[in-house]
Design brief:
The protein has 197 residues and is α+β, with helices and mostly antiparallel strands. It has two domains: 65 residues, Phosphorylase Kinase, domain 1 (2-Layer Sandwich); 123 residues, Transferase(Phosphotransferase), domain 1 (Orthogonal Bundle). Helices cover 39% and strands 17% of the residues. A four-stranded antiparallel β-sheet has the order 1-2-4-3, with helices on one face.
C-alpha cells in the first residue's frame, strides 16, 4: 500500500498495487483484485473506504482509494490495549453500519480484523480490504480446500472449510469487539485450527 496524489484532483489517495510476484504465484490474483475494486465501487458507504479509480499501466494494476490518515484499529489497540467503552461503541457502530451495507448488497467481507478497520481524522471507522470478499452469486475465486482470512478472527465454520455467509462476518465482528473491550482475543489460533480439524 502506498500513499499518493490523484493528479486530476490533487486529493491524497491510498494506492494498492498488485505485485507481479503475487500474480505469478496465484492465478486468481488478478480476478480477486478486479473484484475488490468492483466491490468497493458498489459499496459506496461512509464507513467503507471509498474507491477513487482503478488503473492498469504497463501491465500492472492499481486501485486508488480514499486515504484515511488516522491509522488502523490495530494501531490503536497496540497503543492503548483495551479501549474505553464509549470509544468501543463508536467504532463498533461504524463497523456494524459498514457490514450491514455490504451484506445488504450480497458482499461477505471474510477478513474483518483490527488492521482492516481504519480510523479517519474525525474518529469514524472505515472498513477496508475487500480482497478476499465473497460476492453472493459471483464466481467463487477461492478453492473449497483452503481457509481464507486471518485465523484469530475466523469463525469455526470458516476454519472447517464450510460454506460461509454473513454470519462469519458477525463472528469476526464479535471477536474484534471483545478485543476492543479487553485488549486480548477470546481464542487462540491453535484452538480455532483445532476446531477446523
Amino acid at each position: 500500500m502506498y500513499r499518493g496524489t490523484d493528479l486530476h484532483t490533487g486529493q491524497l489517495v491510498a494506492v494498492k498495487a498488485l505485485r507481479p510476484e503475487v500474480v505469478s504465484g496465484a492465478p486468481d490474483a488478478v480476478a480477486r483484485f478486479i473484484r475488490e475494486g468492483e466491490a468497493l465501487r458498489e459499496l459506496n458507504h461512509h464507513n467503507i473506504v471509498k474507491m477513487v479509480d482503478a488503473v492498469e499501466e504497463d501491465g500492472r494494476r492499481y486501485l486508488m482509494m480514499e486515504y484515511v490518515p488516522g491509522g488502523s484499529l490495530r494501531d490503536l489497540l497496540e497503543e492503548q490495549r483495551a479501549l474505553p467503552v464509549k470509544r468501543t461503541v463508536e467504532i463498533a457502530l461504524d463497523v456494524a453500519d459498514a457490514l450491514t451495507r455490504a451484506h445488504h448488497i450480497g458482499i461477505i467481507h471474510r477478513d474483518l480484523k483490527p488492521s482492516n478497520v481504519l480510523l479517519a481524522a474525525d474518529g469514524t471507522a472505515r472498513l477496508t480490504d475487500f480482497g478476499i470478499a465473497h460476492v453472493t452469486g459471483g464466481p467463487r475465486l477461492t478453492g473449497t480446500d483452503r481457509a481464507v482470512g486471518t485465523v484469530d478472527y475466523m469463525s469455526p465454520e470458516a476454519c472447517d472449510l464450510e460454506a460461509l455467509d454473513r454470519r462469519t462476518d458477525v463472528w469476526s465482528f464479535g471477536v474484534v469487539l471483545y478485543e476492543m473491550l479487553t485488549g486480548e482475543r477470546p481464542f487462540t489460533s491453535e484452538l480455532l485450527v483445532e476446531w477446523g480439524r
